[in-house]
Amino acid sequence: MKAQTILLSLFLFVATTTCFAQKTTQDKQTKPISELKKNAVKYKATFIELGSVRCIPCQKMQSVMKSIIKKYGNQVNVVFHDVWTPEGKPFGQQYGIQVIPTQVFLDENEKEFFRHEGYFPEEELVKVLNQKGVH
Predict the structure, then answer these.
(1) What is the largest CA-CA distance in the chain?
(2) Structure confidence at residue 41 (pLDDT)
(3) Which residues form the domain of 15?
(4) By the 8 A CB rule, do 65 and 76 touch?
(5) pTM (two decimals)
(6) Measured between alpha carbons, how far is residue 50 from residues 19, 72, 78 in Å?
(7) Is-contact 57 106, C-beta < 8 A?
(8) Distance from C-alpha of 45 to C-alpha of 78, rounded to nearest angstrom
(9) CB contact at 8 A, 108 and 43
């Protein structure tokens, strides 16, 4: 009898917590997309670095990207794609790159406004970002 009571209590506990967890998950999934977009950060520019972690000039760009994030992270969306990996290769094709590293700059409407091939010193890169009001 005691074992049956323990089993029944355990069953009720599991059933209750499972139902609660499913309800919580459903609530998170049913938020309207428009509300999610309202909370999204609006960047003045997007800086896309197309390169590889195994190429020397691309490795030099890593410190430039980190610095841009540190100084302008709330204004510039910095994205890196390693085009020598299966995950990154489609982005190299999408942007039609010929050499790495290649930097592609998009405005706030995601339209390309500037492109550079090769190592891009931070001082010069910031001048490009300044064109879109990044300061």
Answers:
(1) 79
(2) 76
(3) 2-38
(4) no
(5) 0.71
(6) 46, 19, 11
(7) no
(8) 9
(9) yes
**Sign of the torsion angle spanned by Cα atoms 45, 51, 53, 58:** negative
Pair type for strands 76-82 and 45-51: parallel
On whether both 34 and 73 belong to a single domain, the answer is: no
Cα atoms in the 13 Å half-sphere on the side-chain side of 76:
28
Q: Do residues 48 and 106 lie in contact, with contact meaning Cβ atoms separated by under 8 Å?
A: yes
CA distance 78 to 126: 13
CB 68 within 8 A of CB 76: yes
Q: How far apart are CA 47 and CA 106, in angstroms?
A: 7
CB contact at 8 A, 22 and 30: no
Residue carrying structure tokens 């050499």: 99
Position 1 confidence tier, pLDDT thresholds 50, 70, 90: low
For residue range 116-129, list pLDDT tens digits in order.
999 999 999 999 99
Same-domain pairing of 52 and 117: yes
Q: Are residues 20 and 59 in the same domain?
A: no
| pLDDT level of residue 24 (50, 70, 90 thresholds) | very low
In this structure, are 80 and 102 located in the same domain? Answer: yes
